[in-house]
Amino acid sequence: MKSRFTPLLAGLVLAVSSLTVQADEVQVAVAANFTAPMQKIAAEFEKDTGHKALLVFGATGKLYAQIKNGAPFQVFLAADDKTPAKLETEGDTVSGSRFTYAIGTLVLWSAKPGFVDDQGEVLKKGAFKHLAIANPKTAPYGAAAVATLTQLGLLDAIQPKLVTGENISQAYQFVVTENAELGFIALSQVMADGQMTGGSAWVVPSNLHDPIRQDAAILAKGRNQPAARALVEYLKGDKAAAIIKSYGYAL
Amino acid sequence: MLSEANVAAVWLTLKLATITTVILLIVGTPIAWWLARTHSKWKGVIGAVVALPLVLPPTVLGFYLLMILGPHGPIGQLTQFLGWGVLPFTFAGLVVASVFYSMPFVVQPLQQAFEAIGARPLEVAATLRASPWDAFFTVVLPLAKPGFITASILGFAHTVGEFGVVLMIGGNIPEKTRVVSVQIYDHVEALEYAEAHVLAGGMLLFSFLVLLALYSRKGTSTWK
Amino acid sequence: MTFDKAIHARFQVAWPGFNLDVELRLPGRGVTALFGHSGSGKTTLLRCLAGLERQSVGSLNFKGEVWQDDARGICRPTHRRPLGYVFQEASLFPHLSVRKNLDYGRKRVNGGHKVSLDHAVELLGIGHLLDRMPDRLSGGERQRVAIARALATSPELLLMDEPLAALDLKRKSEILPYLERLHDELEIPVCYVSHVPDEVARLADHVVLLSEGRVVAAGGLRETMARLDLPTAFTEDAGVVIEAVVADHDETYRLTRLDFPGGSVVVARRQESLGRRLRFRVHARDVSLALARAKGTSIVNLLPATVVEVADADTPAHVLVRLDAAGTPLIARITRYSLDHLGVTPGKSMWAQIKAVALLG
User: Which residues are the signal sequence here (chain A) (predicted)?
Assistant: First the structure.
């Protein structure tokens, strides 16, 4: 009985394993602000390595909750450094795999050309009704915006004009629809291929706030997955770095 | 038990819901009346537009409101022309958004009430020398009272529970646009679960009581 | 002058599957019954008179006043027409007491109250109901209140749409006397929609017969009901209405004699005192014919009559024979066989044998 089925079983195992080798995929959870560069990087990655990266975009906090509840992600690109660190201490990552893949650049931006000067003097003049930021309690860019205003000694003066988006995308939405004249957002949101997409901006000097580190890590489900390892290595490579920088991130 | 910020959010929410409900009763009554009476080919279109917030994700509504009410949107241009500025990030803006968002919850019960009354009482009133307006106030309004109560409760409760739209156009400003639901969301996101519990539990209790009141209300007089 | 005292109506209503097209002259007083089967358009016509039918096109001249003339763009809305309307269902306002229901229309009338509230209340016998709410009333009481409410507006025209149709037999007989009092005591013209011949026979002075949206016949009650040229829909129930006076009571046999111009009939003892007017109906199917006064028959009511005309009945085996009994019309439904056998032709003198009469009231 057993002998009759052994070859069949062996054939099945072979077929299944060859299937996984053929379609060597990696499932990646990506912070929403990194959407555009990651799509480009994934395309290059596929071309160069033959592996396929399946991307899921979302807010870092939501992705964290999904990972904790069994989502099948193998690599996680967060919008901050706290969340990957938390996952690491909780044993949900491959230890030692955590690294900073990009440093976010905070920018004061307006959809109107010439509204924001390149020194940020517009903040001191206060000739605006609304300044949009992301929620400083939950979004790293929001926290950096508040830190910047504090550092400039303008927080109390501007506080009544602050409108808060739940995340950086919503803050951008407020500004791009000109419901808020200007706002602190991520440079990556208004930059593509090394160019500003429009409006006027002041790139906030990095000494005004703590660096906005965006960390990545291989998750427990990516352990022993060559494609996951390959993607992480690819992110650290020159090609990826060029793309990341072209979207206004530092490294 | 409630922090100052939470009290402010609760107060703001109640104010928003009250004003929205009053406006909706004024605006919704003629719409519901028209929908209940008309044979126009536009009935379907208007009915569907009114019902849209029932099925649309609030973010969609919020997104479009942000565009329309914004400085480049048609309503935004109108409000600027009138010297009112633009509505997003203001309490008035929240009221406008809430009116759209809660519209079906007021219009539909009213429409059902008007349809249930039918044309007969108006005809009777006309044969008793009452003009259409006279008949509306002296016959239709009293007969539709249960419908008005249902509409008010649902409109109020739904506005209290509003979240997505407020998030999109409110800008989360304390005492102006930070309502309870947004406050809860912030607490949860910031892992301030104790604060969140107070508000979320209160909201749960409130919603339950509202629905309890609604479902245990006895049907009053029906037309015979 | 007579023109000015009448109601002239001309209406057209076109709906999918139904057309109303009528031209009418209604007398300015008395009860006119709009009579026909369901779907004949009688309610629609009544609603046109009231101005409730938005899609009607036509004209309405009420005793010289133009209420509607669509050709000239004139159309008084319902609430500006001095009329009372009683709907098939009582349609009282459920949120108002009986008193407030009565006041609703009365308060909105300016000027003279030809019918006082007290009179209307007394006429309909609802004095003890004034403080009740409509849901505490029986069906008959509700309809009486509705009639009083219409009267309390002192209408110049009273329109009634089968006010008894929703009621059972007992309630009907409770209301009919009140309607008869209306008829006797009020001067205002009444249009009364009905599909029940006995109701029409009892209440109406004039009849308009409607069928499929057209006027088939119109005229005085007795003449119209005795016509033979009506569509079969009406001849199934053919018969005549006779108005008589209570002439004598026979206590031995418990009988009452009713006299009318063409003779008299004897019926079971009635309560009415001598001299009271009573209407009764003689169905064609209850009248047989004989060449000579029958002897040795149990039929008591035998009247000499002259054959006026013969017409087809509702079955090929039967014919309708119209007779004249000294001025009172009668209709007999006999077989075609008997017609030929007895040689019934116009002008022939015969004896009508009345098997039964239906007293109205």
Answer: 1-23
